[in-house]
Amino acid sequence: MDTAPLRQLLDEMTIDEKIGQLVQLSGDCFGGGDIATGPAAKIGVTQEDIDRCGSVLNVLGADEIHRIQDAYLAKSRLHIPLLFMADVIYGYQTCYPSPIGLGCTWDPEMIEGDYQVVAEEAHADGCMVTFSPAVDVVRDARWGRVVEMPGGEDPYLGSRFAEAMVKGFQQGLDEGQGVASCVKHFAGYGAAEGGREYNTVDMSERRFRQDYLPPYKAAIDADAKMVMTSFNTVDEVPATANRWLMHDVLREEWGFDGPLITDYAAILELMNHGVAADKDEASKLALDATVDIDMKTDCYAHSLKRLVEKGRISEQQIDEACWRVLSLKNELGLFEDPYRGCTTSDAARAIMCTPEKLSSARACADEAMVLLRNEGQVLPLAKEGGRLALVGPYADSKEIVGMWAIHADRSHSCTVKEAFDAVLGEGAYVYAKGCDVLGPEEYGTLGEFARFAGGGEPAEDQEALIAEAVSACADADTVVLCLGEHPLQSGEAGARTKLRLPAQQQELVRRLHDLGKRTICVLFAGRPLVLTDILPYADALLMAWWPGTAGGEAVADILFGDANPSGRLTMSFPATEGQLPLYYAQFPTGRPAGKNHTGRFVTGYLDAPNFGLYPFGYGLSYHTSALSDLTLDREVLHPGEELHASITLENEGPVAGTDVVQLYLHDCTGSVTRPIKELKGFERVTTESGERREVSFTITEEMLRFWRRDMTFGSEPGRFDVYVGLDSQRVLSASFELEA
Ligand code: GLC
Questions:
Q1: Active-site residue, selected from the candidate residues 107, 263, 421, 436
Q2: 121 Cβ neighbours under 8 A, 6+ residues apart
């Protein structure tokens, strides 16, 4: 409807009805169950609150959406439809790899198309807003939610994926297609101290703006319709109560005027943070910060009216929040079609998991996997003639779609073993489980949720499984081991301090390697693992992450050479947990370890290197490539001009393949210290064996801007180093001067 009748609708609403629009409750409040003892009572909401609330959390399914919406509208005085929001993070029934894998494609263009597929499936089943993408910058692999972050440790890469994912989700939104994107978790959640879940975030405003805010800004610039507040504090003020962050930065500086929703129960948690004595105070702080929707508590529902009556907040603040919610519902066309195009679950079924969608998920998974090690070129494997064994807890498991793949249709997934059968034929290789993902003790630490993923309770006797596998592999010359962490050992509440493979998995690798077998480890995990212990026993290491619905086929594609691996890391892999947090864009410090500073008194550790086992941007392929002839077309750059850096990429064979050519810049002298290098561009380049290709990048003054000593954003004249490489360490360099 036009703005005028929408404004008129707002004017007709009672204050109770306006407050109702600011409350989000979960689907179990609409199940018709016993309100008195059900989940609604747990959070203190009443049937009246439910009948007035504005949006619903995590209900999907066209029939269910119709049932709830119809029942709600039948009781709604002004017929304002519910808005249905859900966590559709990297797939609905067709699941793509977890975002840490998506980022390793370095292919935002492909991901934008894949997220259109995700949106098409979710929209058909009634999703109107998705709580995705999460774009938190992450530099500490101990934090479990690194699995959800496509940009990894880099703000530039994170920004490219943020805009691609938002655009993919919201393709066709004005025509009733797609889903509105709610970017999260604003802001800085990934910088939790110690990688400890929900922990304090504390850093300078400069670092916050320079390294952590850019991906959210990119999502807003891509027109993300909503933003979700994060659980953490920012400058000792919880984000959900942080007016500087939510109003001054997000709304005033960045121009965001859509609805701002809290993360789960975050308003109530303001009391735990110790910034609110009671729910009234918590509600006032959140509303003053211009937070519009209270997810899953009764704070707004039961405090806001009282706060108005006491003059502690104004009804205008409620009107403004309600207006943003009504405006989004109107933008999504809900007043004209409360179901937003979703008809029935049967109709939705017809578009799920089509061959085209499954094929795109497989192509994406092929690109997401990162080949970390390939000693003696043991990969790719021959499809015939070899004596092959397939071993490990993930060899014949469908638990490889990842933690947020809540709605994945696993009937379309095949295991690695099933994919091997398709390639080699059943019985053409030896199979043995080898061990469980976790031993009984470690499994016990996961608590009650463990039974929902990972393949169930482990056997008491892991040694028996190992011995059985060793025996079964006696005649094999090559063993593929499918290993990794439990799905619930990463993701939300999945912070860990030990990032190595479980003991029985390491024992399995050692025992098979000691038999003289070539050992190829395929790793399923949601984070960089510490692989130092198994390195001597693994001839090849393939990082598969959580590869999604088509993950089994994609592993076979890579192992048998039907796909040439092109994945490149978005997070540095630590050699030991003690190096964390770990990232390539380090500051030089006063004693940079290197040519001018050696010996004891340099930046570093006595017992570990300054950089990880595998660096940001790293990954192997089945071809080798070389860079040469880095040239700049000018030595001096002025504002408004373009400097072109070009380099020659040669595919030295033996097969065609794709490289990610990466551009980094280093500001040699600034009013504040500047990172030794920062990613400023990249290009995926596919070449034939033997082909030489010129790759060029354009450098402008805008790319050199940063948060300066006086906290203004701009560039400063001086020398800049240019690095172009195939990862953040293997680079060629040149320099230029920026002049005012
Ligand atoms: C969770 C997560 C957030 C998710 C929300 C709704 O706690 O932090 O990412 O979107 O709750 O499920």
A1: 263
A2: 91, 92, 93, 94, 348, 351, 352, 357
